[in-house]
Specification:
4 helices; five-stranded antiparallel sheet; alpha+beta; 257 residues
């Protein structure tokens, strides 16, 4: 299972078929998420990939986010989104939740669940590096001036705004590139995706990941409880970022490289 915030995603089935010598892979993925406040229901999607990981077909086998005529209109918007992915030959290996679709207006929660269904499948089929702690997405190695540098792409997801009753108002993903040298010291950082609050809040997050470089932070010594002076007023985003980086720490301490 993959958990993004309060939503849970599961790859239920996997089937391979051969059509005229070409292999296709059919995945049945279920997402359980919130819609219309505190209602929770499942959306199950069949996603067909070709040998290169391109989405060649996608359709809902169960859509529990529909109860009224208005809901059915929102479901039609989600069907249009599936068709959009197919028509644009979307590569599952590069799918991001930050992708924009003009027809999603009014279906914010359902759209989030559907997008995360595809993102969960990306994590499931991505064989560039083993997924550990739900955070490490990819690994890239290069040699610069005779030194080996490894860049890990780490994923974090969580809420950054809440309503007065404590319920989640806004949430999103933060994907960060963390580059370490042969001594496990962080030498470069970069946000690849930042779906949390922009402006000064993002500036503080940027300052935090840059401080990891200027302070020669060893990734193996990174701790969740480490403080950063600039984290005031941006606590929720900082927690998401720190947890994703700590996931990389755990990944490496478990013997992965």
């Amino acid at each position: 299972d993959f958990e993004f915030g309060e939503d849970i995603f599961t790859v239920l089935e996997y089937t391979m078929i051969d059509i005229d010598g070409t292999q296709y892979f059919i995945y049945l993925v279920k997402g359980t998420g919130i819609y219309f406040g505190q209602n929770k229901a499942d959306i199950t999607t069949a996603i067909v990939l070709d040998e290169k990981g391109i989405v060649v077909d996608a359709y809902f086998t169960d859509y529990g986010h529909s109860e009224t005529i208005r809901d059915l209109q929102l479901k039609q918007a989600m069907i249009a989104y599936l068709n959009h992915l197919v028509m644009n030959s979307k590569d599952i290996k590069t799918f991001l939740t930050s992708d924009v679709f003009d027809g999603s207006s009014g279906a914010t929660n359902s759209f989030k669940v559907v997008k995360n269904i595809f993102y969960a499948l990306r994590l499931y089929v991505n064989d560039e590096v083993a997924i550990s702690e739900g955070t490490v997405l990819t690994k890239t190695t290069k040699v610069v001036d005779g030194k080996t540098l490894i860049t890990y792409q780490v994923y974090g997801y969580g809420a950054y705004r809440f309503n007065s009753d404590g319920s989640v108002r806004d949430e999103g993903a933060v994907i960060t590139n963390i580059t370490i040298d042969e001594n496990n010291v962080i030498v470069a950082t970069e946000f690849v995706v930042y779906e949390h609050t922009s402006g000064s809040f993002k500036d503080k997050s940027q300052a935090f990941i840059e401080s990891l470089v200027t302070n020669d932070q060893n990734i193996l010594d990174f701790k969740l409880e480490d403080e950063f002076d600039g984290s005031a007023d941006s606590t929720n985003s900082f927690n998401v970022i720190r947890e994703s980086i700590f996931g990389l720490t755990t990944y490496l301490k478990n013997g992965n490289k």
